[in-house]
Amino acid sequence: MNKLKMASEKSASRVLMLLSQLERLNEEPKVSDNDAIRQTTGKILHLIQTQEKTRKEVASKSSGGMEIILSSLENTQDLQTTLNILAILNELLTVGGGCRTGVFVSKGGTALLLQLLVGSSKDPPANEELMLHIHSLLVKVGLKDRKLGVKARLNGALNVTLNLVKYNLQNHKLLLPCLQVLRVYSRIHFFMSLGKSGTLEIMFEIIGPFSKKSTTLLKVALDTLASLLKSGMNARRAVDRGYLPTLLTIYQDWHRNDTRHRHVVIRKSILGCIKNLTNIKLGRKAFIDANGMRILYNTSTECLPVRTLDPLVNTSSLIMRKCFPKNRLPLPTIKSVFHHPLLHIPASGPVAKLYNQPPGVDDVVDESDENEATEVDTENDTEYDEDETGPKTQNDDIETDINKLRPIQMNTRPFDELRAYEYFFREFSENFEDDDFESPRSVIPPSSVNSELHRPIIIPTTPSSLGPQNRRPPQEDLLTPKPDESPLELDSISISKRPEGTSDPDLVCSLGRLVLDAGVNGGSVDGPQDEGGEQAVLEVPDTAALLPLHDPDLYLEMVKSTRSVPAYTEVGYPDYFGHVALNLREPILERVYGVQRTKIFQDIERLIHPSDILDKVVYDLDNQSCPVTDNGESLKFNSKFESGNLRKAIQVRKYYTNTDVNGDSMQVLMYSVQDAINGSPHWVRTGSDICYYKNHFSRSSIAAGGQKGKSYFTLTFTVTFQHKDDVCYFAYHYPYTYSMLKMHLQKLSALRTAQIYYRQDDLCETLGGNSCPLLTITAMPGSSSNDPISQFRSRPVVFLSARVHPGETNSSWVMKGTLEYLMSCSPQAQSLRESYIFKIIPMLNPDGVINGNHRCSLSGEDLNRQWQNPNAELHPTIYHAKSLLQYLRATGRTPLVFCDYHGHSRKKNVFMYGCSIKETVWQTNVNTSTCDLHEDLGYRTLPKLLSQMAPAFSLSSCSFVVERSKEATARVVVWREIGVQRSYTMESTLCGCDQGKYKGLQIGTSELEEMGAQFCLALLRLKRFTSPLELHNHNSHLLDMETDLIETRSIPNITSPTTYVLEEDEPAFLEEVDYSAEKFSRQDSLN
Length: 1087
Fold this sequence. Notes:
alpha+beta, 7-stranded mixed beta sheet
């Protein structure tokens, strides 16, 4: 070991000596010194090739070796010396990596190489070995020197390399490094100059049919060509010269002959060239004309059984989807079938644009629905998305204006305008002198239903024949009228509950005994009769033990007073009967590898083999007289009930149907009437082969907010029905209708005890004529004396709201849990009522919920983007909700907490968005002083408490960053304009959890209601952190919050979860197979 060490040290000292000698020779160059320089550089080369430590010594800054060698290269005129020095540099940069290459570039090495290349080419023929060394070095330094392309073009080195390629097509030894240099040029956005110089034509002389020889050379040529074709100009030139059919032919040849799949990278490179060509409209047309769809479909189908060929299948799928002819959405207009007249059209936005179009304009598809170039597709060879926690780029949406992040210090409305809202805060002026504190008082008037709103209500059930000759016992089946009879109407039904002590004591089993009894032996009975002279009796079991807040009779009464635009006359069976939560946990569905690709290939197959497609319309709201053939092979569809959402259904194949309905890529819910009859009245997660991808239906610029070339998306899943002649309901999430809310509120009012102050007001009337309930819940004062009344009036206000987005039904289930807890008799609930006055708007968008909207109101707008300037006529619920908050601020009763309940379709768990100046600025490059960022950290207390108490809550998913696109949301406006520090959006997953005791499980209504109750408990614990008497004793807690923030800030490349993961208004995530469903902006995140 010592001998080796001594030898190494000796070599190192020797190379330093040689460098010193070389430096002296450079300082006093003489013709006679050429031999000495040649010998010295040869010795240095030998040492570098044999000793790693020698390489380190030469490259070290202290030795100055790099400067000496480059100086020698610049001064020498001797060919052998030049070759020695170039060989030395090749050795240094090959082993040293990026660090040595960076030093080389910084010392001007690139310019020297290009100068040497140009100079050597002036006296042809150029020395082949010299050209090899120079181009090998240019390949190494190219990606480190971003100005390489400019330098090469200015001094003529680019043309030198191109000429070498042209005249050495058969000399593969020299051709390879020259092509590698061209590949470097093409990758540093130098492809336009290369295209003008004839590089495209040269590349097509090199690539060709299948060959086992020179595959490395071919791969470099294909990579260079693919980079060149990223330029639209080069792509058009290639299409004009007919190169696209040539590439398809070459790909077919390689596919046919590469039977052992040893050249997959070359086949993928050919596809990469085709992919870049099809980025332009001209290329897509040429691809179709060259029968490219069929060629890639057939080759991909043959590749499917081999997993290692997935990169070929994925790239082929991307190309085919991009070239798939854009189809018109099979609708006459994107406007709803049902129209609700507005007092005036919004001044701006998509609704204004849609309704201000001249007559006769097609709003479904543009005249030219494609941009010249499509969006750039990013490619991922795997089928699964990148981890959401991976590195992200800086988000431009984060608010950087400090003034916009500061609360507004003045009231935005005169108090005289707000005085009318005193009516909704009568608790602050009541003296309670006439109250009986021992017994509950009437807090909500009995339901008064307008007689004009009474209308026939139909309850769809399982179709089966009805008559004395084939009537079955109630427990065996559900009997409904014959198909040729008129639907059974509510007024012709008498409702009775099965008395106690019947034969089946199991209440769950008795739920199935919903029967329509048409009488016995044709005997007459009192009351309305059907056409056969028989009264239908709807026998309903008493489900109070399982569903204490559900009453079918009361629900029907609530339905009668609910105003819908289509004037619905049917009631969904699950809504009428009630939802019984499952006792078992449903695991999150694992995605099956390749399912999305399979579905996309089915779409492509429809284009290639159109004769296999039925395309039969089986349901169409636009054409109410749409004939439906009852041949037993077609499903029957219906959505004409509250919250229904289905416009059209088309049978594609015998067992496949397309439906036009809002939805996202999640496992849906199904309610089977047959299962309910058999004792399982549950909404159950269902469906397999679930995926979500961009389809070939063109989206007009009107529908896409002014953007052209966009497409719609397909949600697809497979369901196998278990029963014949069943009625099945499908839902995006557990339904919660407006009528259900009204029923629950009426049932909750009956739970009031003498200790509970409960009041329900109608905040306003919606555009559709429905009332928006406002609840006030707190504890009654102990007596009518001054001290209890004073304590009552001094309680802080907590303001809660939910369901501004109709599709986020889970927010209503969370709100239901909150309301039930607040009305419960537990000591904690009473303590909570004694601590706060709760102002609650449980449904901010009743019209959207009733009419089956996913996100907007009857004005066609997202109400959670109207909080800055709500219009009293177009956005009445938001206008008056904000007015309530403005009144509280004006009277010095700014709420302690504001929380808007929402749902999230793509993130798991429950989490919060809040508002923080500090955390927003920390995500930007804005320089601010510490005093500018002074902020109370109390906004983090409630989320931290929830993370400790609620098993579904995730603190790590919370974000307190304010973004420009969210400045008109409730959370940000209430924080900034009303001055509520603890202003939140609470997001509940629509899917499931990936942490805690619910990890790996889909979320159900029980867990959502539990979350609502846990939120109440967290508010109770929050009390001690906000009490003036105790705040001083909890400084350590705030210090913990500061520590959390500092730790969060210290994480490199930290990004806001809101910024990158939560864009939900339109699926912006890359698809699992990276078929690049455009980077979109849809759904909070959108909240």
